[in-house]
Every structure is written in structure tokens, then in C-alpha cells.
Specification:
- It is a single chain.
- This protein is of the alpha/beta class.
- About 50% of the residues lie in helices and about 20% in strands.
- It folds into two domains: about 15-250, Spore Coat Polysaccharide Biosynthesis Protein SpsA, Chain A (Alpha-Beta Complex); about 270-310.
- The protein has helices at about 30-40, 55-65, 80-90, 110-120, 150, 165-170, 185-195, 220, 225-235, 240-245, 245-265, 270-275, 280-310; strands at about 15-25, 45-50, 70-75, 95-100, 105, 125-135, 140, 165, 200-210.
- Strands 1, 2, 3, 4, 5, 6, 7, 8 and 9 form a nine-stranded mixed β-sheet that branches.
- α12 packs across α13 (about 280-310).
- The longest helix is centred in the last third of the chain and has 33 residues, at about 280-310.
- It is globular, with a radius of gyration of 25 Å.
């Protein structure tokens, strides 16, 4: 079934959407995020900014300035993490739908309107997201895999800035506020989909995910202990969903096992050589580096000659 999309002749949706933006010391990027929300073509929009205990002077000054914007609602609370900030914003807002958006990311002008059109028309859809691109330190398509339960039970395939129904948020008890170190969005999406609805992806780029100056993402910056704790909590929160999709889970586990065994087979001989002759790898690398240095020394005079000919 083709997704309904807004057209110039279509009447605007009457559905109110709350965009929930948690903020913690992100004054440098928040204006760009807000500009992308203000540019939305969907008319019935509410913007809720939740200050989660910021201490950065630039952020605090910006939040004070935003109080004069009647398009915004600003909530301030002690630092309690992204889950608590999103829950506070959703509770304080109105509307049948909401879209959480991190304060350093952006959305395309038609994103909300297109997503609302899908939820308005399809009660079988629990959430709407889109294709995404990276920007900042890295740029280009964000290659999130197509949704399938076998992969989703382990890896989140849906970014947090999706359009949800408020009724589903209430039914699952909101975001888990004990999950303060990451993957709380994965848990929330799983609990929403565990109610029986399906996700719908808009087949166009509508979301832009910022990669910070250090080039890291949330998952790459999490320690192994934090990842284990987060996944353990996701499992505890979604026991019935894992049971319902046990075959998908083990299909994924054994597929990963087969890939590992294939790699072991391919690299078995080099590994045996490395173990038997531990110095051999170092000798080969030293010889390779010497060859590279020699090649650079031979080509360097020719390079300088070409440079002089240009002057």
C-alpha cells in the first residue's frame, strides 16, 4: 500500500503534533534545530523545549531569550536524563502525536506533514520515520538497515525522531527513566511496536543526524558495561516481545555465528603463521615501511622539479 502524502490540493491535517526537544548544554546547536522545526509545513505544531539541568552560560542565555517566542513552551528541570526530559515534555504538551528531536539534529520542512498523513490514514502503523543523512564531522547517507525483527531485537534500526501516537506513549508507560546512558530510544520503540503496530519508513531523506567534532555517536561512545546494562534492561522491559520473536532472535544469533566461523576459516592460515612465528609480522611490516620510504625518496626530486616549473 502506497503511503498517503500531502499535496497542494489536500486539506491540512487537523492533528496537533508536539515536537519535544530535550536540551542539555547544547546552545551552540539548538538554534539550527529550532529553525528546522519552525520551517515545518504542518500548521498545527507545538514546540516544547525541555532544559534538562543545563549549566552552560550560552545555553542558559539562549533559553532565556526564547521565552519571548510564543511558538515555544519551555520547561526547566534538574538533570534527569533524556528519558525524563522527553516524558516531561510530552506530559506538558497537547496533541495526538509527538515527535522527539535531539537538540543538535534537523528535520526537513515536510517531514511532520508527511508522517502525520500516514498516521491519520493508517491505524495499523505505530510510528513513522524516514531515511536519514549524516552531517557535521561526517556527511552522507546514514545506512540504517531495513526494519526486520531479527536485527531489531539486537540493534536499533529506527532513530528516535519518529512520529508517535500519544496514546501508545501512555499505554507503555513512557520512556524508561532509569536508562540514562543510552539505548532508551531503542527500548521505547520496541515497547511501542510490541503492542502490535508496525513501523512505516518514508522513502526519502527527512532527518539529519549530527556527528560531533570527535566523530563519535552515542553507541560508539558507550562502554561495553553500559551496552550490556542497556540491552539487559531492554530485555527485561520486553520479555513478551522477545518470546514472540524468539525464532527471529535465534536466526540472527546463528547467522552471526556462521559469519564468525567463515572469518575464522578464511584467516586460519595467517593466524597459525602469526602464532608460530610471532616476529614474522613485524619483519614484514618493517620491510613494507622501508620500501615505502625508498619509493618516496626516489620520487621526491621529481616532485620538487614539477613544483619549481610552476613558479
Amino acid at each position: 500500500m502506497s503511503p498517503p502524502t500531502p499535496s497542494a490540493s489536500a486539506a491540512p491535517s487537523e492533528s496537533v503534533v508536539a515536537v519535544i526537544i530535550p536540551v542539555f548544554d547544547s546552545g551552540a546547536t539548538l538554534p539550527e534545530t529550532l529553525d528546522s522545526v519552525r520551517a515545518q509545513t504542518h500548521e498545527r505544531l507545538r514546540i516544547v523545549v525541555v532544559d534538562d539541568g543545563s549549566t552552560d552560560p550560552r545555553t542558559l542565555q539562549l533559553l532565556d531569550e526564547l521565552r519571548g517566542d510564543d511558538r515555544l513552551q519551555i520547561i526547566r528541570q534538574d538533570n534527569a536524563g533524556p528519558s525524563a526530559a522527553r516524558n516531561a515534555g510530552i506530559r506538558a504538551s497537547e496533541g495526538a502525536y509527538f515527535l522527539p528531536l535531539d537538540s543538535d539534529d534537523r528535520i526537513s520542512p515536510t517531514y511532520v506533514a508527511e508522517a502525520v498523513a500516514v498516521l491519520d490514514a493508517r491505524p495499523d502503523v505505530a510510528l513513522v520515520y524516514a531515511r536519514a543523512e549524516l552531517f557535521g564531522r561526517k556527511s552522507g547517507p546514514w545506512p540504517l538497515p531495513d526494519f526486520d525483527w531479527s536485527g531489531f531485537l539486537i540493534h536499533n534500526q529506527i532513530f528516535d525522531a519518529a512520529l508517535f501516537r500519544r496514546a501508545d506513549w501512555a499505554a507503555v508507560g513512557g520512556y524508561d527513566e532509569t536508562m540514562r546512558r543510552g539505548r532508551e530510544d531503542h527500548d521505547f520503540v520496541m515497547r511501542v511496536l510490541g503492542r502490535g503496530g508496525e513501523p512505516h519508513r518514508i522513502d526519502a531523506v527527512r532527518y539529519y543526524y549530527r556527528i560531533g567534532p570527535d566523530g563519535s555517536s552515542v553507541n560508539s561512545s558507550m562502554s561495553r558495561e553500559d551496552l550490556i546494562a542497556a540491552h539487559s534492561q531492554i530485555l527485561r522491559n520486553n520479555l513478551q516481545t522477545y518470546a514472540d520473536h524468539a525464532e527471529d532472535l535465534f536466526a540472527f544469533v546463528f547467522r552471526q555465528h556462521d559469519e564468525i566461523m567463515d572469518l575464522r576459516y578464511r584467516y586460519a592460515l595467517p593466524e597459525r603463521i602469526r602464532r608460530r612465528f610471532p616476529r614474522a609480522i613485524g619483519i614484514v611490516k618493517a620491510a613494507r615501511d622501508a620500501l615505502r620510504r625508498g619509493a618516496r625518496a626516489v620520487s621526491a626530486p621529481f616532485g620538487r622539479g614539477r613544483d619549481r616549473s610552476r613558479r
